[in-house]
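Suppose a colleague, Dr. K., hands you the sequence of a protein chain of 273 amino acids and asks what its three-dimensional shape might be. Before reaching for any lab equipment, you can write down a predicted structure in token form. Begin with the sequence itself:
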Amino acid sequence: MGETMTDSNRELNLNEASSRFLGSLPPEKITTSQQAIYQFVRWFGRERLMDRITPDEVAKYAKKIPPSVAEYRKKLELAKAFLSYARKEGWIKKNLAVHIKIKKGKTRQKENTGRKAAAAISLTRTGYDSMEKELSELKSQKPSVIEEIRRAAEDKDFRENAPLHAAKERLGHIEGKIIELQETLKIATVIGEKTEITHKVCVGNMVKLVDLSSGEELKYIIVGPREANATKGKVSNASPIGRAVIGRVIGDVIEIEVPAGRLCYRVEKVERH
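The predicted structure, expressed as tokens, is then:
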């Protein structure tokens, strides 16, 4: 039974919606469906609100997948199913599924235009080990969640079976996170190993900056986007501060544009973290 379009539903983002959709599927279909669903989610952005997706964007997504790729039809059919489910649940107002057109006939020859190899992700050794540990923990959780689904499914009243829906949603989240971590670790490059010591700032360094206007000292650890954590002083090399300090040496003065104005710092110290 679909939900009405409440304010809470309108705020549902793609990450949450995909977990709920996967959780609605039979356990045996979750594993075979999640890769295509998470590809769809990554294309739009995990934090993108469901009701902000436009028909034109959906059509563009379908066109960007060439018929030559593996499981072309399955990928688009699952994307259509996800959008149809979102419409039924009231998360979106329009039937966006109709804007996904699946091409028929012979598949085109393999083409490289517009398709690039996945870019390597830089991780510190700590970050890499942390992801491996999280992956191992998630894999160990799967059997117990599958058992929860099996037990909950014994109650034949599926419409009111909250434990079954919750367990399915949890399994969908776990499976999706496992795929995400596996893909990241597969292309990750561990920085700071077997590299020459350099005075230039690079990913993995601790950088001490001095605010030239106040004399305040700030310390940051430069990491890849996946490890960024402001509360621990870890900033991404893609952030304004990260971009400003990468490649700099002790004594360099950097300027950073922020909403409040322009900040000036001097690179005081660089250490391998």
